Amino acid sequence: MEEMNGAGSAAPLQSYTAAVDWINSLIPFGIRPGLERIERMMERLGHPHRRLKFIHVAGTNGKGSTCAFLTSVLRQCGYSVGTFTSPYITKFTNRFQYNGEDIPEETLTAIANRLHPLVEEIAETPLGSPTMFEVTTALAILYYAEECYPDVVVWETGLGGRMDVTNIVTPIVSVITNVGYDHTDVLGDTLEKIAYEKAGIVKPGVPVVSSVSQPEAVSVLKDKAASCKSTLYLSGEQFTYESKGTGEGVQTFTFKGPFRSLDIGIAMKGEHQLANAAGAMMALEVLRQYMAFILEDKDVLAGFRHTFWAGRLEEIPGSPRIVLDGAHNPEGAQSLASSLPKFYQYRKLNLMMGMLSNKHHESYFKHILPIVDTLILTEPDFRKKMDAEHLQLIAESLRENYAKDHLQIIVEHDWGKALQLLKSMTEEDDLAVVSGTLYLIADVRSALLRQPDSEKGW
Fold first, then answer.
1. CA dihedral 216, 218, 220, 222 (to 10 degrees)
2. Hey, which of 150, 172, 173, 305 would disulfide with 82, CB 3.0 to 4.6 Å?
């Protein structure tokens, strides 16, 4: 790939590290809703996104797992798949996958060098500098449209939907997993407002699949689909799923859709994963029925069965038993609280958590406190972290009405020391859980799996 900038001088970014540092240097420009800057970049690059087939996935929780199911099944069925997700757990290159493999560092560097002069040029206009996520999204589009040419791109929104940068694309099917209270500082503080933002990914004539359940959110989604003349496939109406129980580490459910029924098994733990898998299956059915995708039953079932997504009720091998789960909002906490007793047997439950400062933590604690014996509050190594003492104040205020009588609350600011404490106090019959923001999960996971070169971020 050409590594010269517009002026014909040498590439400004000489290494992968320099490229990632440059992209991350745009973080101070924040999350700035709006598509003007990404549209300008795409226009200057010849609209590469128009050459790709996207499955666009939005929602409060379950986006990553849904993307993982879709990727796994489509690959098993013989399709080449690009997968764009955020945040990443291990390394910046995780965000841009092609058939399960990260973008090569040298490819990322070369594409960043193409974007560098364009970003500087736009920064000089009234539009202002493109943000980190805008540049990352443009990089993904160039990778898929001009480097690896996947049959389909599984495309996760960053935040919301309507004004999210990923909404530059017109997909072949849209998926909205659910709607809950998260990022209310940006998306609004009612379910209707949040649903309106998520429903922004619905495009004229493009079918949309959703597992949204709250009546007020369903109403917003139905109105949007009707105004776009888009067919809506809604869980509980056009398709249903029913759990058939768990055996040998596999959850089985019966999927019933407008075209057929199928019994599906998944190894992902948690009841909420049934909803994610069923939504993914409905999206796949749309592709099979209307877009001539060849998806054989045996391949579909194998794809679901082998899906894995890091940091989602993920048990780390070894002793003591430690489970990682990136539940960081009320809906995630509810799923975690209901899933742990179903999937694990334990005497005591010791939970370590850290959060960012822009979340509904009181509702989170209302779900978590009733099942926890020891709570270790710590802080992620991230600029927007919430002070552990602040979390302690919230937890203590709810102790009387929600917590077990003997609940022990410990504050340890250093997450590394908190992890050692968690391990030392968890006995053979106990279960240790690390939960909260994925920024904490990423660091803990790399420490437990001894991955010293781990990066993390949004």
1. -150
2. 150
